[in-house]
Specification:
The chain is an alpha+beta fold and 488 residues long. The protein contains 20 helices and twelve strands. The strands form two sheets. A six-stranded mixed beta sheet has the order 1-2-6-3-5-4, with helices on both faces. The protein is globular and about 70 Å long.
Length: 488
């Protein structure tokens, strides 16, 4: 009865805001017809492939700093059974030492150019990058070339890193969201390569061997699989000259054989199996105050453009909320409105995580009191059913505008811009212009959301992870039965 009352109030508020949404929609349409700056940036992205197989992607943009890095299409899902944990160890040891310099010398080299470097290990990709003043790009490329071509790993470093990694895993246990979202793909893709977490078991860390890490690293850093991405005031010809110099590759021998390089990237994952399973994992701990739950469904691949953009919009419709959020009673998403008025949850967030080349997980994560879990998952699933049946044009318009804003904001942050280029090149083998993405969003209608939701949400088996005080969470069979409506 309380939920029904809140829903009526929500509909009333939504109707009163209809004109606001319509004016906002028209404003965005006007904006997308006059994106000269955006267009100039998009047209400055060039690429080529060197004779050693390394692929270069360069975006020329006016900036005082340059972000440059490399990615390889291998991660935890490509580890052999005896190599479990290699991706995580490599993230920690990548910049430790080379044949030419020790750790102190490497750190000093970065300090001299004012550079910052980072390495990110993922299930499907390994990425490392750095940001330096634009005048020091040559030295950053030299630094990365030394790490890639001359990097070494010794037993002393591995043994010391085991202690550090075990301490980090112990601290990570207090971050329930990170733990829950790491379990989710491991359960959803159990028994497949994508089920391999970046974080191995404690025993695997203790028994980890340096020889396995060296073998994994040598296989990982084959130059024919490396893609170097640069975003800053450096043209492609200049970048090619710098990279050829430090990677011992003749200049002038490059070509634009992008399909061949992308085929190599795809070959790393096309033979691996991605089987999504509707399953659950519950780790009940009555000493906890709250329950932490993530429920997800199998989403589309990158190639299914319409479904991918539609579910991105659907994610914005479901939205996110926490007690820290402002807006009080005037939050647009129905779940946020309901949560504020009924103290339904402490926070929730919809997510859309993409892995590998042909699969993804779309769903929702939330934190509740122990006696609110049943109501919360019911409200979430009812909202999902609404996406499949009665979603309105007004709500779709609001979500599309939010998606456009997020895309345009990538242009103002150099690091986000760099990561966006990496993500697109890894997915498609080329950069998808933001203007084109905005056009794809504008094609989405309420009918599109309903049709795509019917395919990927309605009557599908979810993967569910629950931690903490979860005795009030319904059985999996009840959760599964709420994924369809008998009256529809």
């Amino acid at each position: 009865m309380l939920i029904e009352f809140v829903f009526k109030a929500y509909v009333s508020i939504s109707n009163s805001c209809c004109k606001t949404f319509q004016s906002c929609e028209s404003g965005f349409r006007k904006m997308t017809t006059d994106l000269d700056i955006c267009s100039n940036v998009e047209n400055s992205i060039e690429s080529c492939t060197l004779v050693n197989g390394m692929h270069l992607v360069c975006e020329y943009r006016n900036s005082y700093t340059t972000t440059l890095g490399c990615f390889v299409p291998t991660g935890a899902m490509h580890e052999m059974p005896e190599e479990r944990g290699s991706t995580l160890f490599l993230e920690h040891l990548l910049f430790r030492r080379t044949r030419n310099r020790n750790q102190d010398q490497l750190e000093k080299a970065l300090e001299e150019i004012g550079g910052r470097v980072s390495a990110i290990a993922m299930r499907h990709m390994f990425l490392f990058y750095g940001t330096v003043p634009s005048s020091e790009v040559n030295k950053l490329v030299q630094f990365f070339a030394d790490v890639i071509l001359n990097g070494t790993i010794c037993n002393q470093d591995v043994e010391r890193e085991k202690i550090i990694i075990l301490e980090e895993l112990f601290k990570m246990e207090s971050d329930k969201e990170q733990v829950t979202m790491d379990y989710l793909p491991s359960i959803a893709y159990h028994g497949t390569a994508l089920g391999n977490s970046i974080y191995p078991k404690t025993d695997e860390i203790k028994q980890f061997r340096t020889e396995n890490l060296i073998e994994f690293r040598d296989r990982l850093f084959d130059t024919s699989f490396l893609t170097l991405v640069c975003s800053g005031p450096v043209c492609l010809n200049k970048l090619e000259e710098i990279v050829s110099k430090h990677f011992a590759c003749k200049t002038g021998d490059s070509n634009d054989s992008l399909p061949e390089h992308y085929d190599k990237i795809q070959s790393c994952t096309e033979l691996l199996e991605y089987r999504f399973s509707g399953a659950e994992l519950r780790l009940r701990n009555d000493d906890e105050e709250l329950g932490y739950v993530a429920v997800g469904l199998e989403g589309p691949s990158y190639e299914d453009t319409e479904a991918h953009f539609a579910l991105t919009v659907a994610k914005e419709i479901v939205g996110s909320w926490s007690k820290k959020c402002s807006g009080a009673n005037h939050n647009a998403p129905y779940i946020a409105h309901c949560a504020f008025n009924t103290d339904l949850c402490y926070m929730y967030k919809s997510f859309f995580h993409e892995w590998a080349q042909s699969t993804s997980i779309w769903g929702c994560y939330f934190v509740c009191k122990k006696l609110s879990l049943e109501d919360m998952i019911h409200v979430v699933q009812q909202e999902w059913m609404r996406l499949c049946t009665t979603i309105t044009r007004k709500e779709v318009s609001r979500a599309i505008n939010q998606c456009k804003t997020k895309e345009l904001m990538l242009l103002s942050d150099p690091q986000s811009r760099f990561l966006d280029i990496v993500k697109n090149v890894f997915r498609y083998g080329y950069y998808v212009p933001i203007q084109q993405r905005i056009i794809e969003y504008e094609k989405i209608t309420a009918d599109t959301i309903r049709n795509v939701s019917q395919s990927y949400i309605y009557d599908q088996s979810p993967a569910l992870i629950a931690l903490g005080r979860i005795e009030n969470l319904p059985d999996y069979c009840n959760v599964r039965s709420a994924m369809y409506l008998l009256r529809y």
